[in-house]
Amino acid sequence: MKKYTIQKSPFVVPTTDGKLIEEHFGNATDGNSKVSIAHMIAPPGWSEPFQTPEFEEYTYIIKGKKQFIINDETVILEAGQSIKIEKQTRVQYSNPFLEPCEYLAICLPAFSMDLVHREDS
Q: Under a CB-based contact definition with an 8 Å cutoff, are residues 9 and 30 in contact?
């Protein structure tokens, strides 16, 4: 039995906001509810509603910048920087900048619409 898995065809999450989400491991790809790892590209001007997820989320910025509003504090990360946001923290993710933002997101446990608790926009 192999002791590794190579992901060559991540699940591309359908979106309506221009954001690319490629889940490499997680609920949608391999049924893993413990962790999700996704490669994302958020277009300029992208944002999503506030959420208070039941998972920790780690974000590593590859290119561009990404804005986080965490409770009432605004944090901007640039390429090469990362952040861990604790579960049960109210957060909004956005890219109000002129360039796309490419990043990796890791959620523990795995991302799930049942656990994200997005607010009505």
A: no
Nearest to 43 by CA among 82, 78, 17, 76: 17
Tell me the two tokens of residue 114. 């049942």
pLDDT in tens, 50-103: 999 999 999 999 999 999 999 999 999 999 999 999 999 999 999 999 999 999
- Phi-psi category of 8—alpha, beta or left, where left has phi over 0 and alpha has psi -120 to 50? alpha
What would the pLDDT profile of 3-46 be if each residue is shown by its tens digit? Answer: 999 999 999 999 999 999 999 999 999 999 999 999 999 999 99
DSSP code for 18: S
Give 40-61 as a DSSP string: EEEPTTEE---B--SSEEEEEE
> Tokens for 64?
């561009």
Cβ atoms of residues 55 and 77 within 8 Å: no
CA-based radius of gyration for the chain: 14
